[in-house]
Write a structure and sequence with these properties.
Elements lengths: L1 E7 L3 H13 L2 E7 L2 E6 L5 E6 L9 H9 L3 E11 L6 E5 L21 H15 L7 E4 L12 E8 L1 H5 L1 H15 L14 E5 L6 H9 L3 E6 L1 H5 L5 H9 L6 E4 L6 H13 L15
Helix pairs in contact: 1-5, 3-5
């Protein structure tokens, strides 16, 4: 089993993070993929770093591709990526992938890729911790589930945003690289994390999941797939998609509803459908403090 780390030459932030990973620790070249070296970590042999020449969000089924071409069996996929935003705010983000609607940006319509909630949340906290050691002013947050590509293994994106200026800087890329390496010194796969961490689906709120991010920094909890208000307001979220989010969030124990970000009628509707399907609704007061 392998942790597959994917970089893209099309993406300057992705390349920057990859270069920092290669600088911060020892990797060995082991084969070629798309005419680029494949790197395997010197001591953590199950960490493999590959590079693709095209857009990550449209490179479908890369888990199958590396199985066939490199005889690698990925158990977790991590895409190194830029983040683009009209707000142009410096950010460090993590998020699960998939589509609640049409597949405008890769992946498959109304299809969610398995998440890695405990891994993703641990990385979120590590990035915040490592950022606090610097003088950089960046927002550290989740993003809600969005875009492709399609894979069958647990997957997350880890990103530097939000403009070319941040993508080219070494410091934010170095924070992501060091956070990844710190993660791997303790955990490689989702099931290696402590099993007493509640895993939740998030419903409601904006693209940067402010409430779920705040809760994850304060409470011993991990979020998997997150459904933003803009998909709810468009009428695109029904039980079928909620069920897909649950199925694609390993070890899900309940749902957190960001009530203040939703209309009362929406909250009532979600509560009823979750009750009908015997899905626990969890409030922040019920969650243990993060130690």
């Amino acid at each position: 089993m392998t942790v597959l780390i994917i970089s893209s030459t099309e993406d300057p932030a992705s390349t920057n993070i990859k270069n920092n990973l290669l600088e911060q620790t020892t990797w060995e070249e082991q084969g070629v993929f798309y005419n680029a070296p494949v790197f395997r970590h010197h001591s953590m042999k199950n960490l493999v770093l590959i590079t693709i020449p095209d857009k990550k969000i449209r490179h479908e089924n890369i888990d199958i591709e590396v199985q066939e071409q490199l005889q690698i069996d990925p158990k977790l996929a991590i895409f190194l990526s830029r983040h683009r935003s009209k707000m142009e705010e410096p950010t460090l983000t993590v998020h699960p992938i998939g589509n609640y609607g049409e597949a405008e940006f890769g992946g498959q319509p109304k299809t969610l890729v398995p998440a890695a909630p405990r891994t993703m949340t641990y990385l979120l906290r590590l990035m915040k911790k490592n950022l606090n050691k610097t003088n950089l002013e960046y927002q550290v947050c989740y993003e809600v589930t969005h875009h492709g590509p399609f894979l069958k293994v647990p997957t997350l994106f880890i990103e530097v945003g939000s403009t070319e200026v941040q993508w080219q800087k070494k410091e934010p890329a170095a924070i992501i690289a060091s956070s990844l390496l710190e993660l791997f010194t303790q955990y490689h796969y989702e099931e290696q994390h402590p099993t007493d961490i509640p895993v939740l689906i998030g419903i409601g709120g904006g693209h940067y999941a402010p409430r779920f991010t705040d809760v994850a920094f304060q409470k011993n909890v991990a979020f998997g797939h997150m459904i933003p208000s803009y998909h709810i307001d468009s009428g695109g979220i029904d039980w079928t998609l909620i069920e897909k989010a649950i199925q694609a969030t390993p070890n899900m124990t309940g749902v957190y509803i960001h009530k203040k970000a939703l209309k009362k009628s929406q909250v009532t509707s979600f509560k009823q459908v979750l009750l009908d399907h015997h899905i626990p609704i969890v409030s922040s007061q019920e969650l243990p403090l993060l130690v």
